[in-house]
Here is the input.
Amino acid sequence: MKTYQVDKNGFYGEFGGAYIPEILHQCVEDLQQNYLRIIESESFQKEYRALFRDYVGRPSPLYFAKRMSEKYGCRLYLKREDLNHTGAHKINNTIGQILIAQQMGKTRIIAETGAGQHGVATATVCALMNMECIVYMGKTDVERQHINVQKMEMLGATVVPVTSGNMTLKDATNEAIRDWCCHPSDTYYIIGSTVGPHPYPDMVARLQSIISEEIKTQLMEKEGRDYPDYLFACVGGGSNAAGTIYHYIDDERVKIVLAEAAGEGLESGRSAATIHLGKVGIIHGARTLVMQTPDGQIEEAYSVSAGLDYPGIGPVHANMAAQHRSTVMAIEDDEALAAAFELTRIEGIIPALESAHALAALSKVNFKPEDVVVLTVSGRGDKDMDTYIKYKNRVK
Ligand SMILES: *Cc1c(COP(=O)(O)O)cnc(C)c1O
Here is the structure.
């Protein structure tokens, strides 16, 4: 049977793999050999599920959005990852990876972060498990995202400002990989999305797959069938989307609509629409679509939403788009901002700007009234209030 899941060599079609420096070979190989055994073990599942329930607050609700449904002419459900501890889906992944790190006998945790959301989720689980935590963050982002830096420090993490390149996420990731190369024996690298060398994209997708596992049960209760007609999610690196679609990826009854950030427009030169604009290349250990200059230098990505401005994309999504399994919409900054205000006013939910990109994609599809649509609200909007206030003053 045709599958969109990873193959045994770590590839999704022509995308994926593990393109890593020699010094990390042993580390990555150890993880490849052990991640499935650990994730599937009874002791891991027991602790992971207990933390989901009592610490994260799972299952997250599947909310029937009545007024939004009327507006868009379908049966719209919102998967409320915004209600998780730390305010987004990212904690699903960091809880899983810290348990894997413990099982592998590692004592030191490193992570990269852009806007700081993954850094906070990592610092949180390190506090919980009493592990040393070092977070690499571009100096530009350290200045832009001060509250998240303060949260990470309060949680006991060391935040290292990175001053190479444009001083943003891509540079922070390079620095984290450099650290890992220097401490391969005691250090575990918690990657924040479905990116990086195999097995990270598959491991992160599995750890986020709780989202679609819950959707199945919840839809069965509410609709009497366990699959929707459409799934919607935003994509930065692709982890909340990968979790949302995981158990439906090979079920062709379910249409998959993904929203990537077009920033100021696809043609503007200021965008993060990697699937629309990227060319095949290698970024952070994976072969995937990459925003790059004609001579192959990685281009800086831009979006009003800091969680979506990554110049690569998870290999699972590059492959699904290439095979036309998913429909990928490029959503501009202003469309996302308007969608955030709409959800807030219609349903009383202030979404993260990233999630607002998925909401903005709703207006681009013609639904039938009986279509069941599930859209993942990946996070809450507290962190985006400054941007929302600025936008409101601009359009007033
Ligand atoms: C980080 C983040 C994203 C983007 O990351 P993915 O790996 O693509 O899910 C989306 N939404 C929120 C709220 C985030 O914090």
In short: The CA atoms of residues 339 and 359 lie 6 Å apart. The mean pLDDT is 96.
